[in-house]
């Protein structure tokens, strides 16, 4: 199993975060806080009317104060529960929402790149992750 001490885990999480932040449009909340990929994931899963346990789990953690921190916790939750590919796929279903959140260079706006990314993430479902949540 992959644990918190794994160098590969840190590389994987950094690459996932890079993909989710690459060419992300700058958006602000009502109170001026910068939105991040966490907000994109929440909106995407909410739009699909999916009650996602990962969202509930992350929002229940009082120590997490920033969207980036919540996003990282969500990625870890999804890896442990083998839900990352499915969760991201649900968020990528609506092309209009993708264009609302991402500029044209985002790999998520390319059907070919999106399929490659999701295919790779579905392969991670075979890997066991034992991570501290």
UniProtKB/TrEMBL annotation:
<keyword id="KW-0968">Cytoplasmic vesicle</keyword>
<keyword id="KW-0479">Metal-binding</keyword>
<keyword id="KW-0072">Autophagy</keyword>
<protein>
    <recommendedName>
        <fullName>RUN and FYVE domain-containing protein 4</fullName>
    </recommendedName>
</protein>
<dbReference type="Pfam" id="PF02759">
    <property type="entry name" value="RUN"/>
</dbReference>
<dbReference type="GO" id="GO:0007033">
    <property type="term" value="P:vacuole organization"/>
</dbReference>
<dbReference type="GO" id="GO:1901098">
    <property type="term" value="P:positive regulation of autophagosome maturation"/>
</dbReference>
<comment type="function">
    <text>ARL8 effector that promotes the coupling of endolysosomes to dynein-dynactin for retrograde transport along microtubules. Acts by binding both GTP-bound ARL8 and dynein-dynactin. In nonneuronal cells, promotes concentration of endolysosomes in the juxtanuclear area. In hippocampal neurons, drives retrograde transport of endolysosomes from the axon to the soma. Positive regulator of macroautophagy in dendritic cells. Increases autophagic flux, probably by stimulating both autophagosome formation and facilitating tethering with lysosomes.</text>
</comment>
<dbReference type="GO" id="GO:0008270">
    <property type="term" value="F:zinc ion binding"/>
</dbReference>
<keyword id="KW-0175">Coiled coil</keyword>
<dbReference type="GO" id="GO:0071353">
    <property type="term" value="P:cellular response to interleukin-4"/>
</dbReference>
<dbReference type="GO" id="GO:0072383">
    <property type="term" value="P:plus-end-directed vesicle transport along microtubule"/>
</dbReference>
<dbReference type="GO" id="GO:0005770">
    <property type="term" value="C:late endosome"/>
</dbReference>
<keyword id="KW-0458">Lysosome</keyword>
<dbReference type="InterPro" id="IPR004012">
    <property type="entry name" value="Run_dom"/>
</dbReference>
<dbReference type="GO" id="GO:0005776">
    <property type="term" value="C:autophagosome"/>
</dbReference>
<dbReference type="GO" id="GO:0006914">
    <property type="term" value="P:autophagy"/>
</dbReference>
<keyword id="KW-0862">Zinc</keyword>
<keyword id="KW-0863">Zinc-finger</keyword>
<dbReference type="InterPro" id="IPR037213">
    <property type="entry name" value="Run_dom_sf"/>
</dbReference>
<dbReference type="GO" id="GO:0051050">
    <property type="term" value="P:positive regulation of transport"/>
</dbReference>
<dbReference type="GO" id="GO:0005764">
    <property type="term" value="C:lysosome"/>
</dbReference>
<feature type="domain" description="RUN">
    <location>
        <begin position="3"/>
        <end position="133"/>
    </location>
</feature>
